[in-house]
Design a protein that fits this description.
mainly beta, 12-stranded mixed β-sheet, 3 helices, disordered N terminus
Amino acid sequence: MRERTVKDWYNHCLLPDGTELQEHSIKTDRNIVIGEFCQIDYGLRGANVYVGESTKIREYVWASGDARIGNWCEIGSDVIAKADAYIGEGVKINGKLSVLGALDIGEKVEIRDGFEAKGAIEVRNPMPVFMFIIIYLMTLLRIENEKELDRILDNLFSDDEEEKMEIPLMIPARSKLNMKLFSVPSTMKIGKGCRLHGNIRAGSIDVQQNSVIFGSLRARNRITVVDGVTVHGNVESGSIVHVKKGAHILGDVKAKSIVLHEDAKVDGTIEAPHGLRIERGS
């Protein structure tokens, strides 16, 4: 097995409980972490918002805490930080920058509609966002050195409620989100009570209780939908699909093999050339 590296966590997508992906925004009460080289056609609204280098955000960035925008990013509208802001070199903001706290700003920054900062302003190049996020996660999860990041990878997508309470919304590097498609390179885990609009593509997908997907799910590997999940579209996997008790798929389900609970509901057709297994009981 390939040895895991510090950057492996960046290949995962986590949408924590209660995340809303609507027509113009991604909303959560958690921190938001966006990887490098992403293309996101939405606004971001969260606690602290961290955007990795060379990412394009079509709409706004709104942070109830700090906002940290990496080098060479482009923001399509306003950047609003209710605490401090850190704007990297070469950032382009096609709106207004409003900061209630202090502002650290790099060179060659373009702000179309000007800026205001209530606190101190310092012109310098802040720490690269990727490095900052590594330190942030190590501090958040009480990790003393990078070798312990294996524990993050083991527990980040677990059902441990104490761990989950701290985990931010994370979108991995090179992801693409637009009005039709939400595509990430590897694992996606969708928390409880989320409402997402768009077709989801990932390496594997896990949808937790009482979430609603207005679109299709497609993964190279496993897809799991559980109690109270409603998918308004097709579910397709190159491997296996688990449709648990109480789940409702309004479209077709297609995979090499399918495990379907007797109390789940599929409105469309079912295609499983390697076999369909019916689960019974709890």
